[in-house]
Amino acid sequence: MIWNVTDANSRGRLREELDKCYEKLAGMRATRRRLIKQYVGDKYQAEGQKTRTIIVNLLYQVAMTYQLSLAGSCPKFKIVAQQPMMGQVARKWEVNLNSLARRLKLEQVIQEIVLNAIFKWGIAKIGRGDSIAVDLDNDIFTDPTYPFVASISPDRWVHDTEATSTRSLRFAGDHYWVEWDKLEASDRVDQKVLKRLRPGPKPTTNALGEEMVSSLSGGLDANDRDRDGIEVQDLWYPDEQRMFTFDYEMQEGPLFAAPQSGHPQGPYRYLGFGPVPDNSVPVSITENLEELHHLANSCMRKLARQAKGSKHFNAYEPGGEQDAKAMNQALEGQSVAVTDVDRVKPVTVPGPDPAIQVFRDGVINDFDRAAGNLSALAGLGAQAPTLGQEELIHQQATGVEAQYLYRTQVFIGEIGEELATLMWNDPIGYPGQDSLADNGFPDVTFDSTFIPAIRQGRISDYQIAVEPYSHVFIPPQSKADGILQTISQVILPLAQTPWAQEQGMGLDIQETVNLIADLKNQPELRTLITFMGAPQETGAPSSDIRQSPTTTRTNVRKNVSTGGTPQAQQQSKMQALMKSAGNAGQNAA
Questions:
Q1: Taking the CA atoms of the chain, what radius of gyration do you get in angstroms?
Q2: How far is CA 26 from CA 21, 33, 118, 385, 549, in A?
């Protein structure tokens, strides 16, 4: 169906279609809202919205572990030119693209999108600096001079639900509330259309009266309700390759019509970790873990009640009051006189049921495996009795994580490609600065301005590829270990070759020590190691020293205990608990 956005009847039919699709997406919004409530826990939520007590928050562990592993750092982009003559232009383009990513704090936006995808679906919105969204957005890092990237909340999202994938959407868009003053101040808004609209207070729910995730911590305050504005609908219309901005009810024509976009998906990009055949909405990581999370917490709540109900007291037969009183008043190790010691007996109300504890531990272990060996990914302890087996398990855990990492890599690459395209078509210049830091000269910089004069023709003519990297977080200690491993396995063997010695290859030991001290946060290394300057040559020159052509290598395999795996510890714990339960049953008999 083709809609005429300037015709009131056609807009009315379009609004009806949007409302139907928004209602069909109610299940997606409810699932995300329910999972996020479990993620934040009962203590975070406002009164009247609290869930049952969450004692062990397994979903929080999943979300934090995968968010850090998938998008822990600001991404960098490598622009690869297929044509050699484009090499210099590609380098300037790359420098300014990475500078833009840092300016936009792109890692924060991507982390928010990844978190949305962990709970349901991540959606990014990418646009030009002269887009109306820049005028109306409250993001402090948006700048009308540069392109922008924003995370779209699924609570405020609508798309063609009849489409079997995001590649075949007839329309897609998001809506948001804007203060009236901002609309009046924007020179991009059609003021004639705006004057025919009437502002109102900010709504506390969506159009269907559903609770929104943004209200979990308390909702609106009096100041929010007193500010007038309207709900605005951005809508991507592939038939015209354009983005339109309407008032939410579409009472009037577009408030703004963006220039045509060359990308078939328009300004939106999508991240989902579990694609579903013949459906546009994915399944999330946490959806399949929710029941195990509930079951573990149900066991924990029951065990907590049993622990609180556990008690010890003395019971006595009628006539044994004096004996009971004397025993209660006796001090530790004191002897007391009683008429009949059998009239007073200690009674114990048992605490947590060992069988439930065993079941609870089994549920948590199943959750760990279903989440992709979460304890290994999060570094929560040794997973194998020896170091070699430990490394193999971590490699397998990384293999489980690889599919999520691949989808994130593709998604970030799509964002980089769109930003690069917007930069290429932008009439302004980007004042970039390049350096020779990668070549060992960090203090040498040169101008790398990306001016319009060097951007000739269409971007598709140059066959460039935008490849993201470095968005995965690497701890400084791991960086130090990687440097030392590269030195021992690559640099030192390479330094023994004749051609390396002919070129004067050497290793700056002092700089290496300083770098390792910084990365490992061990400044004491600088005081422990001293450098006395270059040694004086004695005897044969160093160039005559060669490694013996015949060497003997001894490989020693060591099994180093890591204190037992969680599975082994859990098995021992289960056996002890079951033995305790058996003894308790025999004593009761």
A1: 33
A2: 9, 10, 18, 48, 73
Residue identified by tokens 């982009």 is 77
- Model pLDDT for residues 320-330, shown as the tens digit of each residue: 888 888 888 88
Rounded-to-integer distance, Cα 279 and Cα 77, Å? 31
Q: Which structural domain range is residue 358 located in?
A: 291-329+341-370
244 and 313 belong to one structural domain:
no
Which residue has tokens 């029941």? 291
Query: Same structural domain for residues 147 and 273?
Result: yes
Q: Verify that 105 and 245 share a domain, yes or no.
A: yes
Enter the tokens of residue 475. Answer: 């701890």
Residues 165, 304, single domain; the answer is no
Taking Cα atoms as reference points, which of 369, 160, 166 lies closest to residue 265?
166
Asked if 100 contacts 126 with a C-beta cutoff of 8 angstroms, the reply is: no
* Model confidence pTM above 0.85: no
Domain match, 308 and 241 both? no
Q: What is the average pLDDT value for the chain, to the nearest integer?
A: 81
Burial of 216 (0-12, 13-18, 19+ CB in 10 A): middle
177 and 37 fall within a common domain: yes
Q: What is the pLDDT of residue 359?
A: 94
Rounded-to-integer distance, Cα 367 and Cα 373, Å: 9
| Cross-strand bridge partners of residue 466 | 79
Number of domains in the chain: 3
Instruction: Note the residue count of the chain.
Output: 589
Task: With respect to residue 178, please indicate whether it lies within any of the assigned structural domains.
Answer: yes
Predicted confidence (pLDDT) per residue in 8-59, tens digit:
898 899 999 999 999 999 999 999 999 999 999 888 876 656 668 899 999 9
Q: Clarify whether residues 174 and 230 are in a common domain.
A: yes
